[in-house]
């Protein structure tokens, strides 16, 4: 063909039926997107990620700096389109900023979206599985851990023990090995608690979560497991999913 000739075709359009989940994840998080893909593989669901600026180290001041970016980052997730659920992907950041404030910031741009966060979802999971007395494992430094401890206690959870790897950077947290996690959990007394809460979306606990439950005869709630579970339930997806702990059963 020597000259450009365009033949116009007439398409038909499918109605979009899959629920839409938008996930706001930290610019420094290596883990949460991979965990969503692992759990939600094969489910009729559309997931859209956008990253919010965050500067390490982990501390209250840096968490608060994220708050001003939430409306802009929310708006960039399918601009002017409906998103059913928006998940704000930072556990300790949510505690610092506040669940209600995060919801109000998201609703500035997506007023019809249901909103969840890792700690919002974890609290729902504790109630769902009747976990009242828990042990806690985090990768955070002490000043962040104190805010997590206080938040759990304020929400009527009894914290039997609090354990931490004392890390300041998401890049370090994402490198914590499964063997190190297992070794750390082995040092936590789980005999007198209802379950273990593993906090932080950057920590790669999801892939061994079921192994931990079986090995230590306990129930585990992790940040990513909980927020994915809550996103699915808010989207009216109640699939039983194997391999990621009792919460999905």
Short account of what is shown:
The chain has 249 residues and is α/β, with parallel strands linked by helices. It has 2 domains: 20-119 and 227-248, Rossmann fold (3-Layer(aba) Sandwich); 122-222, Rossmann fold.
Can you walk me through this structure?
The chain is an alpha/beta fold and 249 residues long. It has 2 domains: 20-119 and 227-248, Rossmann fold; 122-222, Rossmann fold. Helix content is 38%, strand content 17%. The protein has helices at residues 32-40, 60-66, 70-75, 91-97, 99-107, 118-128, 142-154, 170-173, 178-186, 209-216, 223-234, and strands at 20-26, 46-52, 85-89, 114-116, 133-138, 158-164, 195-198, 220-222. The strands form 2 sheets. Strands 2-1-3-4 form a 4-stranded parallel β-sheet, sandwiched between helices. A 4-stranded parallel β-sheet has the order 6-5-7-8, with helices on both faces. Helix 7 (142-154) links the parallel strand 5 and strand 6 (158-164). Helix 2 crosses helix 4 (91-97) and helix 6 packs across helix 11 (223-234). The radius of gyration is 20 Å and the shape is globular.
